Amino acid sequence: MRTANSMQTSSTETMTGPSVLSHDESSIREAAAALTRSGVVAFPTETVYGLGASTLDPTALDAVFRIKGRPQDNPLIAHVLDIEGAKTITTGWDDRCTLLAEAWWPGPLTLVLGRGESVPDQASGGRPTLAVRSPEHPVARALLEAFGSPISAPSANRSGGISPTCAQHIVDDFSGDPEARDLIVLDGGRCRVGIESTVLDMTMDPPRILRPGVLTPEVLEPLIGRIETTAIREQVHSPGTAERHYSPQTSCMLVEEPELIDRLASNECRCVVITSISGRRELVQPPHELILMPLDPAGYAMELYEALRRADAERADLILIETTGEDDPNWLAIRDRLMRAASERLS
Ligand code: TXA
Ligand code: MG
Do 313 and 177 belong to one domain? Predict the structure, then answer.
């Protein structure tokens, strides 16, 4: 079922943006056929939506970089159905990879390995390594099955922006963009996890987490021993983890209670407050806005990008995010995304 998304411009000419398809069998077939014609298909995964192209098709991969506005040297994650699929495009798969994949695939865990000979440069931003993961979302799996070959997919947002967690976010981002004219979006509902996968570099010993996700060292180490983590500001091995990322257009600050109270009282600007503390309802009065978040990290992660997008849409002067879960490892990936969202704009 197709819903053409069209926007009427002032000159009566119609600018078409992405086409949203439901996730029935014929839509999946149509999307897989588009991939075989070097097309680009946005599809749901359990983490966020991806902007997919055939891993083995340089022309299609170039289109992904163009649509996203992504720097050419920022490598992509290849999505596969299973361990066998991963082995066909990587080198250096070892017993530790098998242990991790048997425990967590399909799921939000990405492994960086050697890049297989058949894989073009574009799939890994010219690097000798390749990131792979097996997504759990049934629509992603149906698309992989119908296409029959790995699909490379960065998050389906513009480079540096907020990752999409539903089909409408992609329409919002790319509507009217001529580069995205032929983009197909498979609508698979809201993403369950809500933030991107944990990226683990298996080419090092011990392996190193390049991007934190909901799968923390605490759950991975019992399987394979010590894992190194990288401080946010030192993440040079994973170029996509630039300090400022996942960012709204509106300036964004992480605050604790005293600063929150000061900022709201000063009345200098209109703020949107994102917090898990329901007691803030009394404090945040018009013209300020409140976005109340769940108290548990899984619920918070699931709603985070939707909240940042809503906050941005308010066109306020400032987004104030009240920080939570200081030392709890289950909040680490959320804090990582919040720090990037709030980090100074790079010039
Ligand atoms: O959950 C996810 O991982 C989502 C869904 C769509 O699968 N994908 C995603 O892709 O977040 P992207 O491109 O937005 O982020 C991929 C991250 C980037 O930080 C990139 O630099 C890193 O993985 N990465 C990919 N390949 C790499 C490689 N060969 N070496 C080091 N880092 C790599
Ligand atoms: Mg991304």
Answer: no
Residues, Cβ < 5 Å to ion ligand 2: 155
**Angle formed by the axes of helices 217-224 and 95-104, nearest 10°:** 130
What's the CATH code of the domain at 294? Answer: 3.40.50.11030
Range of the domain at 206: 4-224
C-alpha to C-alpha distances, 223 to 96, 127, 144, nearest whole angstrom = 8, 28, 28
How far is 93 from 217, CA to CA, in rounded Å?
A: 20
- Show which of 171, 206, 224 is a domain's final residue: 224
**Terminal-to-terminal C-alpha distance of the chain:** 43
Helix (H) or strand (E) run with residue 53 in it: strand 50-54
Residue 241 Cβ inside 6 Å of ligand 1? The answer reads yes
Q: Among candidates 308, 198, 199, which has minimal Cα distance to 245?
A: 308
Residue 128 burial (10 A CB sphere; 0-12, 13-18, 19+)? exposed
- The per-residue pLDDT for range 241-281, each reduced to its tens digit, is 555 566 788 999 999 999 999 999 887 789 999 999 999 99
In the reported structure, the alpha carbon of residue 86 is separated from the centroid of ligand 2 by a whole-number distance in angstroms of 21
- What atom in ligand 1 is closest to the CA of residue 196? 1
Nearest ligand by distance to the CA of 159: 2
pLDDT of residue 347: 32
Residue nearest to atom 13 of ligand 1 (CA): 154
Say whether both 64 and 194 belong to one domain: yes
The CB of 125 under 6 Å from ligand 1? The reply is no
Write down the pLDDT at residue 242: 52
Average per-residue pLDDT in the chain?
A: 91
User: What is the per-residue pLDDT across 135-172, written as a single tens digit (0 to 9) for each?
Assistant: 999 999 999 999 999 999 999 999 989 999 999 999 99
For 90-135, the pLDDT digits (tens) are: 999 999 999 999 999 999 999 999 999 999 999 999 999 999 999 9
Query: Residue 129: CB within 6 Å of ligand 1?
Result: yes
Residue nearest to atom 19 of ligand 1 (CA): 240
Dist. CA 13 → ligand 1 center (Å): 37
Residue 166 belongs to domain with CATH number: 3.90.870.10
How far, in Å, is the centroid of ligand 2 from the Cα of 253?
21
